[in-house]
């Protein structure tokens, strides 16, 4: 019976330490050292929260940059990958459909960056490769009457380099790109 009481006390101690003290301490430290990230890296415009730097949003207007596809349909409560086998006929057919749709939407597109037709692993990747963003420039230029050079400069300005110069790939956040674009054009 003595060992049961010891087990209960140790369990209660670990529940308090691991379930209460540790989470409060790490949250407090994060709020002090990294307040923006601890709050979800929110993007605000005009005093209203319009998104997060960490989550993709679906932009369908032909005047805006489109993000990478989402297997979760951009629903943050439904994180999922497609789990489609790359070597399957279904995957090949889906890729051909996406390529055809992309070519209809962007008729001048010659080289198709992979991130414009594939989905991200989580379904929420907010970033595109600079090539993926620039592939959409002719369509956006035609729709908005903004010069292609100006749009390419916008992509270049908002492109983030590799982290520490070696990790990851250059990328551009589509939500931030569209916010800057909307400052230049009225939809």
Automatic annotation (TrEMBL):
<protein>
    <recommendedName>
        <fullName>Potassium-transporting ATPase KdpC subunit</fullName>
    </recommendedName>
</protein>
<keyword id="KW-0630">Potassium</keyword>
<comment type="function">
    <text>Part of the high-affinity ATP-driven potassium transport (or Kdp) system, which catalyzes the hydrolysis of ATP coupled with the electrogenic transport of potassium into the cytoplasm. This subunit acts as a catalytic chaperone that increases the ATP-binding affinity of the ATP-hydrolyzing subunit KdpB by the formation of a transient KdpB/KdpC/ATP ternary complex.</text>
</comment>
<keyword id="KW-0406">Ion transport</keyword>
<keyword id="KW-0472">Membrane</keyword>
<comment type="subunit">
    <text>The system is composed of three essential subunits: KdpA, KdpB and KdpC.</text>
</comment>
<keyword id="KW-0812">Transmembrane</keyword>
<keyword id="KW-0813">Transport</keyword>
<dbReference type="InterPro" id="IPR003820">
    <property type="entry name" value="KdpC"/>
</dbReference>
<keyword id="KW-0547">Nucleotide-binding</keyword>
<comment type="similarity">
    <text>Belongs to the KdpC family.</text>
</comment>
<keyword id="KW-1003">Cell membrane</keyword>
<dbReference type="Pfam" id="PF02669">
    <property type="entry name" value="KdpC"/>
</dbReference>
<keyword id="KW-0633">Potassium transport</keyword>
<keyword id="KW-0067">ATP-binding</keyword>
<keyword id="KW-1133">Transmembrane helix</keyword>
């Amino acid at each position: 019976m003595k060992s049961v009481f010891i087990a209960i006390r140790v369990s209660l101690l670990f529940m308090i330490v691991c379930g209460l003290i540790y989470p409060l301490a790490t949250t407090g430290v994060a709020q002090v050292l990294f307040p923006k990230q601890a709050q979800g890296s929110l993007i605000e415009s005009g005093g209203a929260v319009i998104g997060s730097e960490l989550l993709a949003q679906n932009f369908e207007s032909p005047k805006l940059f489109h993000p990478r596809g989402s297997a979760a349909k951009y629903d943050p409560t439904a994180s999922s990958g497609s789990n489609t086998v790359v070597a399957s006929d279904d995957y090949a057919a889906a890729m051909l459909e996406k390529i055809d749709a992309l070519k209809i939407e962007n008729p001048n597109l010659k080289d198709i960056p992979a991130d414009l037709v594939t989905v991200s692993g989580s379904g929420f990747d907010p970033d595109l490769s600079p090539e993926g963003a620039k592939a959409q420039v002719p369509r956006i230029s035609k729709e908005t009457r903004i010069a292609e050079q100006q749009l390419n400069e916008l992509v270049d300005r908002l492109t983030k380099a590799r982290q520490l110069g070696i990790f990851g790939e250059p990328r551009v956040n589509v939500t931030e790109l569209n916010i800057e674009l909307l400052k230049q054009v009225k939809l």
